[in-house]
Amino acid sequence: MRRTILVAMVLALLLIGCAEEQKEAKPSPTPAEEKLKVAFVYVSPIGDAGWSYAHDLGRKFIEEHYPVETKYSEAVPEGPDAERVIREYAEQGYDIIFTTSFGYMDPTITVAKDFPNTVFMHCSGYKTAKNVGTYFGRMYQARYLSGLVAGSMTKTNKIGYVAAHPIPEVIRGINAFALGVKKVNPDAKVIVVWTGTWYDPAKEKEAAISLLDQGCDVIAQHQDSPGPQQAAEERGVYSIGYNSDMSKFAPNAHLTAPIWNWSVIYSYVVENVMAGTWKSEEIWWGIDKGVVDLAPFNKVVPEDVRKIVEQEKEKYLKGEVPEQYPFVGPIIDQNGNVVKAEGEAMTDEELLSMNFFVDNVVGEIPQK
Questions:
Q1: If 283 and its partner were Cys, which of 135, 138, 247, 352 is the partner (CB 3.0–4.6 Å)?
Q2: Where is the ABC transporter substrate-binding protein PnrA-like domain (predicted)?
C-alpha cells in the first residue's frame, strides 16, 4: 500500500514538472513568423541626399515589402572602423550584411571568412567568396544620358565635373558623361577637378566654384553632397546632380541627375536568401533592370533635348545596343590614341579597369 502511494506521488511530481517545463518553454517560431535580419553599412550620412541616402531608400523598401528586420550604421570610415562594424553585425547574427562602399571590400572579405553562414554583399567591389557576392549598377549608362543634357544646355562649351577619387568607377562615369556631351556638342569640353572626397560639402562646393570661375556654365559631380549643385544655383548656371534627385537644393540649376534604385537589387537578394537559392555572383545591372535612371527633367530642358535622351534610353530598354554602350568605337583618348575602333565595344573587364580619359575631357588622372 505504502509502495503504491509512493509511486503515485512520484508520478504526480513528474507530471507537475512536465507541466511547468511546458509552461516556461517558448514555442519555436514558424517560418512565417521569422524575420530575416538584414544590416547595412554606409560610408556617409543618410541625410546627404546622395549615395547613402539612395541606399537607405532601398533598405526602407525591403523593410516595407518583405518580412525583414533591418539595421544600419552611417558615416562609417573605410578601414579598421568598417571591419569592426561589419564584424559586430555578423556576431549579432544578421543573415545578410550589405557593405555599400568600395573601400569596405577587404574588410568584408576578412570578416566573411569567420562567418561562413552569413551572406555578405559588397557594393562596387570585385572580390568574392562562397558567402560574398558583389553588386553594382551600370551607372555609366545614366551618366551618358545626362551628358546629352549637359552638352545641349551649355553656352560656353565648358562643362565642369567635380570628381571624387581616381578609381575606375569615377573615371568610367566621367568618360560616359563626356561621350554624351560629345554626341550632341562636339565643341564642348568637360573640365575635371578632383576633391579626393566622397562627402565633404564645403570642399565639393569650393571645387565647383573653381570650375565656375573658369567659365563653366554646367556643373556635374561624383560625390554625395549637394555642394556643387548649390554653387551652380548661387551663380545662376546649370547643374547635373548624382545619386538621387537633388533638385530641392538647386531648383533652378538642377537639370536632371543620374540616380540609383537599389531596391531592385536588395529585393532580389532578399528573395533568394529567403528561398534558399542565394549564391555568390557579381551583379552589374543597368537601365533595362531599373537599377539606374535619370531624375525628372527641369522645366527649362527643351522638348527636343528630352526627345534625344528618351531615344537613347530606348536603345537600352529594347536591347538595340550592348550593355557597354556608349563605350562603342570609335573611342579616342586624350593623346589621340584609338582605344576602340569603329563599332567595337569595350568589354566589362576593360570598363572595370578603366584608367584613361576620352578626348573631350580636360584634366589628368592622379597617379596613386
A1: 135
A2: 36-324
Helix (H) or strand (E) holding 308: helix 303-317
- Cα–Cα distance between 120 and 137 in angstroms, integer? 17
pTM: 0.89
Copy the grid coordinates of residue 299: 522645366
Sheet holding 282-285, edge to edge: 68-73, 36-41, 96-99, 119-123, 132-137, 282-285
All three cell numbers of 353: 579597369
Q: Helix, strand, coil shares of the chain as percentages rounded to 5?
A: 40, 20, 40
**What percent of the chain has pLDDT above 70?**
91
Instruction: Check: CB of residue 39 under 8 Å from CB of residue 94.
Output: yes
What residue has cell string 550593355? 323
Cell of 9: 506521488
Q: To the nearest whole number, what is the mean pLDDT of the chain? A: 92
Hey, what's the cell of 172? Answer: 568610367
Worst-scoring range by mean pLDDT, 28-32, 58-62, 135-139, 362-366?
28-32
Domains of the chain, each with CATH number or no CATH: 36-137+262-286 (3.40.50.2300), 140-257+296-362 (3.40.50.2300)
Is-contact 168 159, C-beta < 8 A? no
User: CA-CA distance, 9 to 4, in Å (whole number)?
Assistant: 9
Query: Band of the pLDDT at 283, cuts 50, 70, 90?
Result: very high
Complete DSSP assignment for 274-292:
HHT-----EEEE-GGGTSE
Residues 6+ apart with CB under 8 A from 182: 147, 151, 188, 358, 360
> Beta 292-294 vs 258-260: how paired, if at all?
antiparallel
If we measure between CA atoms, which residue out of 338, 312, 339 comes closest to residue 325? Answer: 312
Please give the backbone phi and psi of residue 207, each rounded to the nearest 5 degrees, phi first.
-65, -40
